[in-house]
Amino acid sequence: MDRTRALTLFLAVARAGSFSRAAIEAGLTPQAMSKAVRQLEEHLNVRLLHRTTRKLSMTDEGSRLFELADPGMRMLDEAIDQVHASREAAGGVVRVAAAASLGGKLLVPLIRDYQQRHPSVRFDVLLDDHFTDLVEARVDVGFRVGVSAERNVVARKLRDVRLVICASPAYIGENGKPASLAQLLKHRCTGFRHPNTGKTLPWELQKGGEIVYQAVPAVATFNDVATEVEAVRSGIGIGQLATYMVQQDLDDGTLVPLLPQLSSARLSVFMYYPQRTQMPSRVRRFVDFVIEANRR
């Protein structure tokens, strides 16, 4: 016996004062209502209702059960209604996780533009270069850069990422442009130390249709992408940087691309989330907005 169902139907009969009226409200037959109440009586080993052809009334035990259970069931119904309303509401908090490098260049413009349309939505952003377990961290949507999506999540590829070798005009003016990889290795370069492993990453280069990895003479190594970008802008050395971080610099000449034939385009920016079904309205709308924004 489903005790919760039987109790719910008993309360409905007690409120309505009639099996037939309660059955109409519940979308069941009077016989099904009567059977559920009878099963509850058998389970409790007490009679809950006095039944006659003309009248239905509660026994003392039935009245006691009604007084104890009805307030709690109403609270449960109200809680379910509130959660349902919250799911359908456009406002509320969207919790987002992303790699630190995506915070300023990707997330801030998306949040700004989305809140212009939906000012009642608030964002709670977690920036972490580790892959975030959305369920464990209670995060709605995640963003990361990689070669493929993680398993057990729904993922959408947003854009390709090209790794561009570049330098500032000031550096080039003082040191010249390398014309080959051999010449590049004689220049001052910047490096990136992965925050998870602590290892300095080799540069990823495209050579003859293949991806190769090349250690470079790093005169300064950073574990923060934005700081490495600033170092290259300031002329410390040549860097290999992701286009989503420096596209504006390349467009306005703040940075100059070098050896474009070596640029790698293996990575992508992904958005990921636990599932599409049962997603709160505020999260679903933000996901749809991000997808649409990256089609332009």
TrEMBL record:
Protein name (record)? HTH-type transcriptional regulator PgrR
Which source organism does the UniProt entry give? Answer: Paraburkholderia solisilvae
Organism domain of life? Bacteria
Q: Which keywords annotate this record?
A: DNA-binding, Transcription, Transcription regulation
Q: Which gene encodes it?
A: pgrR_3
> What's one GO MF term for it?
DNA binding
What InterPro entries would the database entry show?
LysR-type_TF_proteobact-type (IPR058163), LysR_HTH_N (IPR000847), LysR_subst-bd (IPR005119), WH-like_DNA-bd_sf (IPR036388), WH_DNA-bd_sf (IPR036390)
Q: Which residue range or ranges hold the HTH lysR-type domain?
A: 1-59
- Give the similarity note: Belongs to the LysR transcriptional regulatory family.
The record's Pfam families line, in alphabetical order, gives:
HTH_1, LysR_substrate
Q: Which PROSITE patterns is this protein grouped with?
A: HTH_LYSR
